[in-house]
Design brief:
Helix 4 links the parallel strand 5 and strand 6. The strands form two sheets. A seven-stranded mixed beta sheet has the order 6-5-4-7-8-11-10, sandwiched between helices. Strands 1-2-3-9 form a four-stranded antiparallel beta sheet, with no helix packed on it. It is of the alpha/beta class. It has one domain: Rossmann fold (3-Layer(aba) Sandwich). Helices cover 39% and strands 19% of the residues. Bound molecules: zinc ion. The site of zinc ion has 8 residues, from loops.
């Protein structure tokens, strides 16, 4: 049993048991509990660092190849990432207007994965570097996206304090045993007036409420915390940030998340990770079925986001 990250309470109520329904890296059951003090959801007990590594399969990161299918996938990924790019461009614009060192245009993407986001920012004139726990991810970012990347943790980097105008963390905090360490690290690395952009699944969304343990945003056992939008704001404020802007819709995450909740066996990433044997025709049929589900999920995900209950929450927060 551990104390709550947000309020320190040691009391909690068990919610449910769940296993790795998406990638099936383990058959083990994990307990999700709710803090009796503040309502924050978390895995308890947390798996050890060594165990956690086993729950991240080798094909977890996207690497574009030369084949037609891979080029098609990259085109899709670029199209749905424009949302993130636009949000960060706006954050960079505001940071440049208020920062003490506005001429620095550096961007740091924490949890850079395969590096496609950084590549898209570079194409728009923003120089950035990536950081990731995974050596594979950092290597892919260097080799395939021609963007520098470091392998490591945000609290142990060779980066100078007060260097970055903007730091991004898309779907990172919920994976960390202690998210505060990363937020304090980001605060140190930003210039005054710099912006942090974070995105996590929103446990207060309609999807989370309706689907419970079957909601894809839980991603047991990789997600150690299931934040609601209000939890994320509290956490950011406790680390010295001021929340400036919220966005509840993500074209990349929300419709696909609902599709994967309803049909985890069709999720393209999950099929790749599980090394499912498929003929070319089967693959096409699965992909088309999944894509139809994503399209069908759009109206619902737009409606929940319009009611500030979208299945992901993206926040721009300033370092005063
Ligand atoms: Zn609590």
């Amino acid at each position: 049993m551990s104390a709550c990250l947000l309020c320190g309470s040691g009391r909690f109520s068990p919610q449910f048991q769940a296993s790795d329904r998406l990638y099936r890296t383990t058959a083990r059951q994990f307990a999700v509990v709710r803090c009796s003090g503040c309502g924050l959801l978390r895995l308890d007990p947390q798996p050890s660092g060594e165990e956690l590594r086993e729950y991240y399969p080798p094909a977890y990161w996207f690497a574009p190849g030369g084949q037609a299918a891979s080029r098609l996938e990259e085109a899709y990924r670029r199209a749905v990432l424009r949302d993130h790019v636009r949000f960060v461009e706006q954050a960079l614009g505001r940071a440049a207007a208020s920062a003490t060192k506005p001429r620095e245009r550096f961007l740091l993407d924490v949890g850079c994965g395969g590096g496609l986001f950084l590549r898209m920012m570079a194409e728009r004139g923003f120089r950035g570097i990536g950081l990731d726990f995974s050596e594979d991810a950092a290597r892919l970012t260097w080799q395939r996206q021609a963007t520098p990347a470091l392998c490591g943790s945000l609290d142990h980097t060779p980066l100078r304090a007060g260097t970055f105008l903007c730091i991004t963390m898309f779907h990172v905090l919920e994976h960390l045993p202690d998210p505060r360490i990363f937020l304090i690290g980001a605060h140190r690395l930003l210039v005054s007036g710099g912006r942090l952009v974070v995105q996590v699944p929103n446990a207060a969304s309609w999807q989370a409420r309706l689907l419970g343990r079957h909601w894809n945003g839980m991603d047991v056992p990789r997600h150690l915390f299931d934040f609601r939008d209000c939890d994320l704001e509290k956490l950011l404020e406790s680390c010295g940030f001021v929340v400036e802007r919220r966005k509840y819709f993500s074209l990349r995450d929300n419709p696909a998340g609902l599709a994967s909740s309803l049909a985890p066996a069709l999720d393209p990433m999950a099929r790749r990770v599980r090394k499912q044997k498929e003929s070319g025709a089967m693959r096409l049929a699965y992909d088309l079925a999944y894509f139809s589900l994503v399209l069908g999920a759009l109206p619902f995900t737009i409606a929940e986001a319009a009611c500030r209950a979208g299945s992901s929450i993206m926040i721009e927060a300033a370092k005063p």
